[in-house]
Specification:
By secondary structure, the chain is an alpha/beta fold. It has helices at 11-21, 26-30, 41-44, 46-51, 198-203, 255-269, 278-283, 305-316, 357-363, 375-378, 496-510; strands spanning 78-81, 85-86, 91-97, 104-111, 119-128, 150-155, 163-171, 177-184, 190-196, 230-232, 273-277, 291-299, 302-303, 320-326, 331-336, 346-353, 369-371, 381-387, 390-393, 412-417, 420-423, 432-441, 444-456, 462-465. It is globular.
Length: 525
């Protein structure tokens, strides 16, 4: 077993920031700090320089297998990480099981654009002597926590850039493969903070068979929706359970399926982007202020009350926000420590944000609590029924968002809305509905309308809601991405209008709101 000394030089600057806001009230802490220093051009070029490095498609799985008895796991080689996100200088454990026992290696890749290859090889670990690790007992609320022995403790090099990293596990006997996934985060100021939707990845993970947030142990293992069930990260990600069969994403959660097209496109375009986990949004309120703009991406369903309050406070402080997502901020969850005492390692559904009257009748006696209406943050929220598809139809042709697209009122981007969406716009001063239309499921009307919205914040910032999980599909189709088809609809793939709308939005974000690149230091009193 390799072990590296755990040192965290990047934490010093973070401690300074925390000291600056210590003792201040919530609003004061989230306001602009005093004394300033401009972000260097060098920092703004981090993403461009990183993606100029040699890429490879070797990160893609080419030989994987799903156990037919469990339907979700790959017991021949599978693993998980001790942390959702980790800073350079900190260490992360990779837990791996091989059954039957086999030596194995771990190849680490950073995902991005890299000339269209989608990834760059950054390290090779091993070979290691593998063994079959024990399946965990069923814990409180049916949680499965493996607490396996680590194969290796790895210290993140100080020069690794924030990003989403895959570890490709390859066992020696049959060369079978699967992934582990983790986020390298930092504390630098940035233009865009890309939040990965890993609470939702965990919620839908059925590993080892029927232990997702939607399984209560009652056959026929359909779609339980209620409290009293936990799902966590101390276990491998099994094969994705929704929409389509995607074994080649085994172990990567949902990142490759809903979020990677946006990340790949942003890195191709050279946007200054840093990456975080949902857990970071939950636990690191101050950290959101280092960004000019916050991005919710893809299928971002499960939020804690902390997450909601932290993002809302950031918006109130002048941070822009874009919900390039659907079904977001819908399920209200609580975070739990694992058996070893490590915080924020599992979640349990407490209830719903902004409950609907019909759901109160169906599930009201189940929920432990309800959250606030998420439309007050996002501009629009999940509707009931949730599922369906639609064309994304322009409703405000003279808005700056549509500049250069050629779109007029009534013009549509076919199939861009799905498979879950947002509607029911909030009564927020200045809110505008940019696109709207009826939702269908297999040709049948769902009697709900999606609404894409935008509204101005209080500090010259903006909050945009694309109202669809499939927004990223209109931007790029990188290696490893599989186009979905659901409820009779299929997203259109890259579309110049989606790209131009996103460029218009990001350009406005870069000129608006709170500028984190001017760091203001409070003088001690």
């Amino acid at each position: 077993m390799l072990r590296h000394r755990d040192s965290s030089p990047s934490l010093a600057s973070r401690r300074d920031l925390l000291k600056q806001v210590a003792g201040a009230g919530v609003i004061a802490a989230l306001g602009p700090l005093a004394g300033c220093a401009n972000l260097s051009t060098e920092k703004r070029q981090l993403i461009q320089r990183e993606n100029a490095k040699t890429g490879t498609t070797d990160w893609l799985l080419t030989n994987t297998r799903v156990d037919p008895n469990t339907k979700y796991r790959c017991p021949w080689i599978e693993g998980y990480c001790s942390r959702n996100s980790v800073r350079p200088g900190e260490s992360i454990d990779f837990m791996v099981s091989t059954n039957p026992p086999s030596s194995f290696a771990i190849d680490l890749y950073r995902l991005g654009y890299y000339g269209g290859k989608g990834g760059r090889h950054v390290a090779k670990l091993g070979p290691f002597d593998g063994k079959a690790q024990t399946d965990p007992p069923i814990g409180p609320e049916r949680v499965r926590e493996c607490l396996w022995e680590p194969a290796v403790k790895f210290t993140i090099p100080s020069n690794w850039l924030s990003g989403v990293y895959l570890g490709k596990l390859t066992e020696e006997k049959e060369k079978l493969q699967s992934y582990v996934i983790f986020i390298v985060r930092d504390d630098r100021t940035c233009d865009f903070l890309f939040q990965c939707s890993d609470t939702t990845w965990a919620a839908y993970n059925r590993w080892p068979d029927y232990f997702s947030l939607y399984d209560d142990g009652t056959p026929p293992h359909n779609w339980f929706v209620g409290p009293g069930v936990r799902a966590g990260w101390d276990r491998p990600y099994g094969k994705y359970r929704q929409i389509f069969d995607a074994p080649l994403s085994q172990g990567s959660g949902e990142f490759l399926l809903w979020e990677f097209p946006l990340a790949c496109w942003m890195e191709k375009e050279g946007y200054d982007v840093s990456y975080i986990s949902n857990v970071d949004t939950h636990a690191d309120r101050v950290g959101l202020l280092r960004a000019r703009s916050f991005l919710s991406v893809g299928h971002d369903e499960y939020w804690s009350l902390n997450m909601f309050n932290n993002v809302k406070a950031a918006v109130e402080a002048g941070v822009n926000a874009a919900f390039l997502s659907g079904n977001s901020c819908d399920g209200l969850v609580h975070f739990y420590a694992n058996r070893a005492g490590t915080p924020n390692r599992s979640i349990s559904r407490l209830g719903k944000f902004g409950p609907f009257e019909d759901e109160l009748k169906r599930f009201g006696n189940r929920w432990r609590r309800h959250g606030p209406n998420p439309a007050t943050l996002m501009g629009a929220r999940s509707t009931s029924p949730y599922n369906g598809t639609a064309d994304w139809t322009c409703a405000k042709e003279d808005h700056w968002l549509f500049e250069g697209t050629g779109m007029k009122n009534g013009d549509s981007i076919k199939g861009l809305v799905g498979w879950e969406h947002h509607g029911l716009p909030a009564d927020i001063p200045g809110l505008e509905v940019l696109a709207r239309g009826p939702v269908f499921s297999r040709g049948k009307p769902q009697n709900v309308e999606y609404t894409a919205t935008i509204y101005p914040g209080q500090k010259g910032n903006w909050v945009f809601n694309a109202a669809t999980i499939w927004w990223s599909d209109g931007l790029s189709e990188p290696p490893g991405y599989l186009r979905p088809s659901a409820h009779g609809g299929t997203p259109p793939g890259p579309d110049p209008r989606v790209r131009r709308i996103t460029q218009n939005l990001f350009q406005r974000f870069l000129a608006s709101g709170r500028d984190p690149h001017q760091v203001i230091r409070r003088t001690s009193q």
